Amino acid sequence: MAAKLHEECGIFAVSEGKTPLDVVTACYYGLFALQHRGQEGCGIAVNHSKNISLYRDLGLVSQVFTKDVLEKIPGGSMAVAHARYGTTGDNNRMNVQPLVINHKKGKMALAHNGNLINDFELRDELESKGSIFHTTSDSEVIAYIITKYRLQTSTIEQAVVKAMDEIKGAYSICVMTDEKLLVARDPRGFRPLVIGTLGDRFIFASETCALDTVGATFLRDVEPGEVVSCVDGELVSDRTHCKKEPKSLCVFELLYFARPDSIIDSIPVLNARLRAGSFLALEHPVQADVVIGVPDSGITAAIGYSRQSGIPYGVGLIKNKYIGRTFIQPQQGQRDTGVKIKLNAIKSTVEGKRVVLIDDSIVRGTTSKRIVQLLRDAGAKEIHLRSSAPKFLYPCYFGTDIDSSENLMAYKYTDDEMKSLLGVDSLGFLSTENVTKLSDTGIEGFCTACFSGNYPIKNNKTKNKFRLE
Amino acid sequence: MAAKLHEECGIFAVSEGKTPLDVVTACYYGLFALQHRGQEGCGIAVNHSKNISLYRDLGLVSQVFTKDVLEKIPGGSMAVAHARYGTTGDNNRMNVQPLVINHKKGKMALAHNGNLINDFELRDELESKGSIFHTTSDSEVIAYIITKYRLQTSTIEQAVVKAMDEIKGAYSICVMTDEKLLVARDPRGFRPLVIGTLGDRFIFASETCALDTVGATFLRDVEPGEVVSCVDGELVSDRTHCKKEPKSLCVFELLYFARPDSIIDSIPVLNARLRAGSFLALEHPVQADVVIGVPDSGITAAIGYSRQSGIPYGVGLIKNKYIGRTFIQPQQGQRDTGVKIKLNAIKSTVEGKRVVLIDDSIVRGTTSKRIVQLLRDAGAKEIHLRSSAPKFLYPCYFGTDIDSSENLMAYKYTDDEMKSLLGVDSLGFLSTENVTKLSDTGIEGFCTACFSGNYPIKNNKTKNKFRLE
Amino acid sequence: MAAKLHEECGIFAVSEGKTPLDVVTACYYGLFALQHRGQEGCGIAVNHSKNISLYRDLGLVSQVFTKDVLEKIPGGSMAVAHARYGTTGDNNRMNVQPLVINHKKGKMALAHNGNLINDFELRDELESKGSIFHTTSDSEVIAYIITKYRLQTSTIEQAVVKAMDEIKGAYSICVMTDEKLLVARDPRGFRPLVIGTLGDRFIFASETCALDTVGATFLRDVEPGEVVSCVDGELVSDRTHCKKEPKSLCVFELLYFARPDSIIDSIPVLNARLRAGSFLALEHPVQADVVIGVPDSGITAAIGYSRQSGIPYGVGLIKNKYIGRTFIQPQQGQRDTGVKIKLNAIKSTVEGKRVVLIDDSIVRGTTSKRIVQLLRDAGAKEIHLRSSAPKFLYPCYFGTDIDSSENLMAYKYTDDEMKSLLGVDSLGFLSTENVTKLSDTGIEGFCTACFSGNYPIKNNKTKNKFRLE
Amino acid sequence: MAAKLHEECGIFAVSEGKTPLDVVTACYYGLFALQHRGQEGCGIAVNHSKNISLYRDLGLVSQVFTKDVLEKIPGGSMAVAHARYGTTGDNNRMNVQPLVINHKKGKMALAHNGNLINDFELRDELESKGSIFHTTSDSEVIAYIITKYRLQTSTIEQAVVKAMDEIKGAYSICVMTDEKLLVARDPRGFRPLVIGTLGDRFIFASETCALDTVGATFLRDVEPGEVVSCVDGELVSDRTHCKKEPKSLCVFELLYFARPDSIIDSIPVLNARLRAGSFLALEHPVQADVVIGVPDSGITAAIGYSRQSGIPYGVGLIKNKYIGRTFIQPQQGQRDTGVKIKLNAIKSTVEGKRVVLIDDSIVRGTTSKRIVQLLRDAGAKEIHLRSSAPKFLYPCYFGTDIDSSENLMAYKYTDDEMKSLLGVDSLGFLSTENVTKLSDTGIEGFCTACFSGNYPIKNNKTKNKFRLE
Known about the structure:
The structure is a homotetramer of 469-residue chains.
Chain A: E1 10-14, H1 23-34, E2 41-48, E3 51-58, H2 61-64, H3 67-72, E4 78-84, E5 99-103, E6 106-116, H4 119-128, H5 138-150, H6 156-166, E7 169-177, E8 181-185, E9 194-198, E10 201-205, H7 208-213, E11 217-221, E12 227-231, E13 234-238, E14 249-250, H8 251-257, E15 263-264, E16 267-268, H9 269-283, E17 290-293, H10 299-309, E18 317-319, H11 332-335, E19 343-345, H12 347-350, E20 354-359, H13 366-377, E21 382-387, H14 409-412, H15 415-422, E22 426-429, H16 432-435, E23 446-447, H17 449-452
Parallel strand pairs in A: 14-23, 17-20, 20-21, 21-22
Antiparallel strand pairs in A: 1-4, 1-10, 2-3, 2-4, 5-6, 6-7, 7-8, 8-12, 9-10, 9-11, 12-13, 15-16, 18-19
Helix pairs in contact in A: 4-5, 5-6, 9-10
């Protein structure tokens, strides 16, 4: 389990239209805007004269889509792109999306953000009938289920709507066929998905920041349960699965995953984080000299805390922005001897001060502990740690990579034990109650399962996600 | 269509055993020995503690398996490797083998050399039942068919034997499961497949030269129709499909594809080529001063021609051995102005001489024409072109890339027209009759369909090989 | 001329010592900490058994020093590293440092940060005597001058002290010989240079943040004019050139170049920026709703402005942190149509608001103009631009890349013209007077030539920096 | 010391002219033709509008000059290219040529093939006057000496002629300035250098095969001692250093280094090798069944032996042509267990036969020993080893990499000992007398120092070639 939790993907797609547009380049920029959602690998599938070409590989957008590679990808009329969050292992190039497959009625490219909870059962059933699987991803399961219904229905839209009866869990998907581009969002809307316009074209993206990146105008969110396809330059919507179930947007989209300049289901992400900071200041006040945030995602909540509390906001930690995937980690021994490679404390901000330190969440606690030590070394007199997420107690089955309670600090230890282990003077978490009030316009409907254990969909199995590789 | 014809693959595999062996490194060397059979891409699938890890990519063995990559591949108990011949296109990384799939009863790695003739029908039938395809290769069809029978039978061997009832055409395949390693050769034995021993381990390879490379001892050829698996350190053979049909070894394996140091179905390749040269000298004698061969594969037949005719053998053409896949071709204009990059003639050998020029085959004639011009420029007085293969008249459906008669020079032109187009003083082809006598021990059973039109298996469809990508 | 001004390098070196340390890895981490000072190329020269091995290339530290490369560099007793800021051109791998040369008395590695003003004259004189130059950098000139004196003196320290009589301008250099490691800082101290300790070893670095990175303890700054060498585990100092001239630290080190967590000549960089913001608020007050900074280096001054003015600090602009050197720029047409790739505005922060926008400087004005437009598009009602640097009016000859007044916005236009061109409601620059008061402990001695035209060293020639390549 | 001896470089250059020509592409093809002369690194320096751009790196032509790199090199009016033979070490990118330097009177690109014998003295003298060296190559010494005289003379030609008074040893050099292209060959003509024409342009190259490659016509060899420059479309020759000393062409150029299709100083290389084989048959006859050659350079001498002796020529050894620089060598243990990766024997050629085996030379004997073992394993009854070079007894100071007698088999052992160590039935070397008769037109003037110890130039020092790195 990672020290931080991670999202599992970003989607970007461009529909057909008369507006002149290099759809591959648009996808390239769209992927850059969504890179924070997935850094393991990325791909672009482009439809050119009803053929689908695919290029995908492990690595960041800048590593995968070099000038050389971009030049080799044919231009096309529409395209779908995907950025994938990565687990470890060298073996998983097969899992990079979009997935492009051939079935009886044609070709299909599929990009998926989320996590099914019944993929194991569906896979088992498919295998019993002779299906073979090339990947370990639930996306291939979705592709099979859609194909199954595609053979029985006259349109891809109908196939997707029917498939949604079978697939359970969190998913925002985009499907491109020889002819069409469509998206679907699961009935509870766990993961975001938005629609923008660029001339007469439509853009689908996981976040609005990707629309801004290509100069598109935000139109609306895809509704939970909705299937939206582009037909003759119009959006056609199927709402069969809408409003049957309450909305369950993952609250971590607001607190941590999404970019601060995105607006998700009408909630500006930056505002949600400022509000998280304000709630924290109200719930866990303290006498202090300065409020600092852990970069990058603790910064905004720190500003919110400062505004509410009146304690000045300061820059207390600097992150080295050049450290990326290829960085060679120091060995264990070095790590313990005061090496400050990724983060450094600013002495002039914290020396002799009572510091309020805002982090976005506490998962295993190891990172927080190291940061606290950094600040102590820099002379902080008191450290009051505040987490803008509630206590993380339960595993998530809907698309983050926390799959058991086992290593969750808040699950294993009491508050006093945590305080002592982290070396802080006080410790406070946002309450689960307030985390549902992050919208400043009263919007509701969040999944808080990882804090509360109230899972919006029943899930009675231990998942075995990685069987093949 | 390429100017030369091309083989489509090489297989190499190592069974379990107590003999200490780094199976991945053995595969690496095995692939080097079989690189001539396929230069598009290559891969190694290794079984470690019943998990199968796969690494494959486009490129030569030396490009794909760098030190870095080899270090990342886990060691294992057995492994299967594949070198693939490449059609053009950047998109076909998916088609690189081995194919590794997951089915109801476990995992399976598959490496395939050959070409099915009913893959289109089989694929169509599978798709009608909801199957999806990730690749355009017939290997994925074979994987599905084996999986189908695997669900109905208790062993992988039985599944392969039953699958062989359905799949038609040329194939030498290797299958590795969690537990077992096995190979199968089609009932007519179009493509070679040999067994060697290395201590208590078995090695399967497309050619004996790969056995030599790893220090293994040749045991025997896999029989046409035979399924051979390694069970508890013993070879277990199923001969259900043996001897029902006559053997049809592709004669180009002897003339062109295989390495001269290999022995295929008891025929030393080098000897077969010497005999081809001798037959040519007998069928198409000429008064001349020197016999030269087109490097690399015309050399041996030239020596054979020289020995039979008494005309001295000489080195008349030099090939630049550094020109590989990444070489940037001269543009059309440059090519016409005497540029001699890949091949150069040796003036001192040919100037003022009557030259017998031996090439392994004449496909489109463009290469031969350019070589003749090179020799003329170097001062050759007469040029007598001899092809150690008969006239190429019919497409091949069994694993070479000549898929229509359309551009075949011998199909389009009369002998006189060819002579004139190629600019030679005389022209002679090995007869189809003699091409079946290339073995010096009277071994028979060759496919000569591309010369004679007598196809060993009926094939009543135009194939549409590349549908997906 | 670039839109922003740029520093020209960072130095990092590790002395001999008994404290166990992998000096190459230490340099690797040191370079990461100094990457912001130079992103064109980097190198490490390591002394192993009195041999000097060098590895250097164009690219970021993470691109040049891959795992593969690091493994090939031999371990050693001491090492010197360099990160170089890059001008355009593919040709300049030769210019990447350290420079390693061979002279009569041995080997020498040289790393240099700064810019000579008499390198043209020195080079000319050297060439007249038959010297040849491989690079276009003034570092090679320094190497020649040191070598000249090395032949006349008995120690490298003496040679460097004498060389300092000849070389004029801004320089912080590090020299490693077969036997010794030493550093020198020009008599006016234009560029920073610090000393740290790590066990019994000494670390030299351009900034203190690099000391923190490797867990070293800050000892002191190298004094302007000082030559410091490591002899038998002790620091030996030569102060021949000290205190003859007043100090002239480049004020941009504080405002822009250095990392906020560094302390330069006793001035914490973050504090200097907060003070710049406070001075701005005092000099150019305005009624507004929110203060925002241009990331990354305008952020701190914005916080300072907010604190002084009482106007709330907010996050109004988000920078895409994944866009690096290999990013493929949008074409001109795309750039004009609202594409927001590198920076995006946050609507919820600025919409309907009177915004104070703090940038670190205004050079050509093109970037500022684009940012103002972004904020207008996001709904900002008023925009009050404040530059935490004074008006940029004169070229710099001491190590930044502004080599003429030609494109400097403040030089070309009046205040009113600038306001209009930038599209802002008001515009204010920090005064030159206050820029010399950035230290909160009254430390003085800054170079403000680019604002005031008062050059600390006379320079009566147009420089011709790039003659060779 | 390597198992085989190695040449140290190839030169290719294109003069100015009106004939339309992409000079960079011409150099690219020229380097491919000369790749056999040097595989460590390569470079192209191009003159565009009197600026010289340089691109060079470690690696083969195909690795260094990728499409991407070629596109970045500016077009130009003339160019000079170099392929370098490589010693080991990662550090020597600096040594890759051409060398481009700046001196008082302009720029100069220098490409050099050969080896000075007084470079140590010259370097020492230069260093005593303050010169610094970036490389360890004698090319930099040559550049300094030419520069020295360039300051005293009015033309580059005069400078080169004067420099030739000082530099001693083997050299074929090409110099390109802002204005001119010229070549010089040392007074004894150790290394080849030829002139060709392509329209009104001149091509200089180490071998004629490079002229053929670009479609140029051979004009003549550069004479030993001659300086040839291109002035206004004419060749201008300075013969100051011609005919003062007898010619001393390295005999290994004919036997081993040069490509068989090249003609060196009027001697067709292929013929020289055939004659070497014939002489061997006359000097060391034997009763045998087949003559085989060690690929690639033993092949032609084997054909010569066969023709003279009447014993049939056969193909007995196959070399894997895919094994290149990045191939990962088997470890010691594997190498001993019958692994046949680079070379394999052909059983059908040698089994039960008395074999004459022709190799081009025997240096340390290790390779020969392994080949003999291969043939024994394949069933050869008798093995009669013949070397087409005489016994290698003395070090070479003129450009090959045998720098001491220490590991030379023929120096250390008697004939009987050698026979026994190599495991052969008989052993014969070409006599030094006959090696001077390799020309079939009676041309004389060879350096046979490595066989006879008669050094054409006195050389009384142990060279210390690699001081810097």
